[in-house]
Amino acid sequence: MSDNLLELDHVTMQFGGVTALDDVTFAIRRGEILGLIGPNGAGKTTCFNVMTGVYAATSGAVLFDGASLAGLKRFQITKRGIARTFQNIRLFPDMTAIENVMVGADANHHTSVGGALLGLPRHHREEAEGRNTAMELLTFMGIADRAGDAARNLPYGYQRRLEIARALATKPQLLCLDEPAAGFTPAEKVELMDLIRKIRDQGYTVLLIEHDMSLVMGVTDRIVVLDFGKVIATGSPSEVQDNPAVVAAYLGVPDDDA
Amino acid sequence: MSLSESLKSVTSGARSVSRLGEALGNQSRSVRWSFGAICVLALYLLPWWPNVPVLGWIVETPGTSFPSVLTDQVVIFVLVALGLNVVVGLAGLLDLGYVGFYAVGAYTVAILSSQHANLPWLVCMPIAVLVSMLAGVILGTPTLRLRGDYLAIVTLGFGEIIRITANNMHWLGDSRGISNIATPPSIGPLKFGVLDAKPYFFLGLTIILIVIFLLRRLENSRVGRSWNAIREDEDAAELMGVDTFKFKLWAFAIGAAIGGLAGSLYAGKVQFINPSNFPLQLSILFLAAVVLGGAGNMWGAIVGGALVAWMPERFRGFADKRVFVFGVALVLVMVFRPQGLIPRKIRKERWLESWKPSTGTALRDKE
């Protein structure tokens, strides 16, 4: 078993004439929190979308657990063990928090029309298991008090956490969080980062997209920096912080250097 | 009382019905069961409702036999609305050609019991359900990759294809249609003939109750949850591991099977069908029934189906203006209650109160 859970191998993604990802190569190691950062439009979310099968890469390969993800449907990739949240919250608004998480838990279930119509034991077992999973995850995320409410009626912070709970319910090996702290107050951000660390300590590998540099520095083990679709730096937070290319990408290059 | 006022009273009536449902939900199991039993009994007595004072004046259908309205219209529409609700209300797939499946069911019975064979209705009916289901799968497999408007247009075409094919194929009786279709077998005093419509009503109501029972099981399972998730956000559902294509196809197949079931019941009742029984307008009315009642709520679909079937007959006194009155009534209900008479509800998680944390297994399962 290789140390790398997920590898992007020379991945290029083009939309018409626009190259969103340009020969991107990096790996996510088992059990780490990897930060994926970069200025707006650097290709972070595109990177996510290629990994989770939303887009098929123009060239290059994505290897998960040593096997290529090419040709798999999105739901199959989820069942392989990659779960994600969305930059713009995409819950099932008219379903309860519990139901939202149970949809995630259903990724590991097998009851279909026949089993449900006949009320087979497996159906009852899976329903009970789904409820338990959902309640435990809501408790873990600290939002169990609103478990029976419709997702759209939850406060913003609850909705963000519910997305993480739903993703965890699929029992992923790799959890991809797309700006989970967007719109949070600094105090809420710190709280969320503690939670992400706790998730990692439970044995999950986490890929984190985040804008807020100080936050990323605090929680990640390693960082990959993207700019204009290219990887411009990889390394520990302190290495990346001192990298002149990263500073230039974020702050711009002084005129006399240009 | 102005029309809009009376419409408001209808919608507030619907609101109090749903509140009654909520109040009942909080009662003990035995109270709920006995209330349900009384309701079912009252439904089986429906053909005699016009004889009850006041209630009779409300439900009566001047100029048409009330039991005939129940069997030819109400039962069929309720069944069809239940099936279409799975497709439109639960899975969120806009189907404008639902009459096609209804026609497939009716024609299967007609072909097998009269045109090309002499099988009894009881044998034809399950075959009709299977054939309609197959039609749903055949239509769904290529088209369910489409979404929204595109799917609506393709299904619209399907409904027309079925009707036009029947109209032009000699094998299907072309425009003259097929007569002498078998009726359901008579059981004791229940004689299925042309004289008495009531036996058909009892049969239809029984079938409806069975369909309700089965659909409830689906709604309260992984299947129903997947349908809801697909309706709410198809991309997110797929990224959470829902095999969206498979469950959309199931919704289509189940909806088609129920539509075919309604068609086989219809054919067994009228004993004569021709292509003009299955116009596009019927698809629109079926959809209107679901939307009027409340898409996504089974009880809403039932109420919508019953109203859309019964209202034109109730307004027969208005003579040639009755369709206009019916149309105005539909528009007003939609204006005052766009979510339908009995809208979809946020699910009540009753078990939550009694839930106790068990040993933590949700996390750390995949090591």
From TrEMBL, chain A:
Coiled coil: none annotated. One of its GO terms (cellular component) is plasma membrane. Residues 6-253 form the ABC transporter domain. GO terms for biological process: D-alanine transmembrane transport; L-alanine transport; L-isoleucine import across plasma membrane; L-valine import across plasma membrane. Pfam families: ABC_tran, BCA_ABC_TP_C. Keywords: ATP-binding, Nucleotide-binding, Transport. One of its GO terms (molecular function) is ATP binding. SUPFAM superfamilies: P-loop containing nucleoside triphosphate hydrolases. InterPro entries: AAA+_ATPase, ABC_AA/LPS_Transport, ABC_transporter-like_ATP-bd, BCA_ABC_TP_C, P-loop_NTPase. Signal peptide: none annotated. PANTHER family: AMINO ACID ABC TRANSPORTER ATP-BINDING PROTEIN (PTHR45772:SF7), CONSERVED COMPONENT OF ABC TRANSPORTER FOR NATURAL AMINO ACIDS-RELATED (PTHR45772). This is Unannotated protein. It comes from freshwater metagenome.
UniProtKB/TrEMBL annotation, chain B:
One of its GO terms (cellular component) is plasma membrane. Keywords: Cell membrane, Membrane, Transmembrane, Transmembrane helix. It holds the Pfam family BPD_transp_2. InterPro entries: ABC_transp_permease, LivM-like. It is a multi-pass membrane protein. It is found in: Cell membrane. The chain crosses the membrane at residues 31-49, 69-89, 119-138, 199-215, 249-268, 280-311, 323-342. The keyword Cell membrane applies. The keyword Transmembrane helix applies. Its main location: membrane. GO terms for molecular function: branched-chain amino acid transmembrane transporter activity. PANTHER family: HIGH-AFFINITY BRANCHED-CHAIN AMINO ACID TRANSPORT PROTEIN BRAE, HIGH-AFFINITY BRANCHED-CHAIN AMINO ACID TRANSPORT SYSTEM PERMEASE. This is Unannotated protein.
